[in-house]
């Protein structure tokens, strides 16, 4: 009788462990999907912000280029056009970020760093441990009572 009861309990335990494993896997998949969705939304916001900024900066750049050109012609001094050089670099960067391939190049470089230079990614003093966090928490806690 005890053997049958024990066998039944083992089967129940095994079924419960499988259910817990499946539940934790499903939870992890949902977390990964959520993190990926958040990353995609943040990237989309960054691109949209860049495109919106480009509209304003492009207008400013165009007006500045016209004004500086007119000023250079009027004063007969080509040095007045000098501010167009840095402004054009900023404009080109923003355009590349909003409509070009800058994000793909950044992604490729990030993948290269992950593959070939992973030592650069290690935090100073190595990864945080629970013990280190507890030590910091205790030192900062006003209500911690030593035992």
UniProtKB/TrEMBL annotation:
<protein>
    <submittedName>
        <fullName>Plasminogen receptor with a C-terminal lysine</fullName>
    </submittedName>
</protein>
<dbReference type="InterPro" id="IPR019319">
    <property type="entry name" value="Plg-R(KT)"/>
</dbReference>
<dbReference type="GO" id="GO:0010756">
    <property type="term" value="P:positive regulation of plasminogen activation"/>
</dbReference>
<feature type="transmembrane region" description="Helical">
    <location>
        <begin position="79"/>
        <end position="95"/>
    </location>
</feature>
<keyword id="KW-1133">Transmembrane helix</keyword>
<keyword id="KW-0812">Transmembrane</keyword>
<feature type="transmembrane region" description="Helical">
    <location>
        <begin position="53"/>
        <end position="73"/>
    </location>
</feature>
<dbReference type="Pfam" id="PF10166">
    <property type="entry name" value="DUF2368"/>
</dbReference>
<dbReference type="GO" id="GO:0005886">
    <property type="term" value="C:plasma membrane"/>
</dbReference>
<keyword id="KW-0472">Membrane</keyword>
């Amino acid at each position: 009788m005890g053997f049958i009861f024990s066998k039944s309990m083992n089967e129940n335990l095994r079924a419960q462990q499988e259910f817990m494993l499946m539940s934790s896997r499903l939870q992890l998949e949902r977390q990964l999907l959520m993190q990926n969705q958040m990353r995609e939304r943040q990237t989309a916001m960054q691109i949209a912000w860049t495109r919106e900024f480009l509209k304003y900066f492009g207008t400013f750049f165009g007006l500045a280029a016209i004004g500086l050109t007119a000023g250079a012609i009027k004063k007969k001094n080509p040095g007045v056009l000098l501010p167009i050089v840095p402004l054009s670099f900023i404009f080109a960067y923003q355009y590349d970020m909003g409509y070009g391939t800058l994000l793909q190049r950044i992604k490729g470089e990030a993948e290269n760093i992950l593959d070939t230079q992973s030592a650069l990614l290690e935090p100073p003093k190595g990864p945080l441990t629970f013990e280190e966090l507890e030590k910091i928490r205790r030192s900062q806690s006003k209500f911690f009572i030593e035992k």
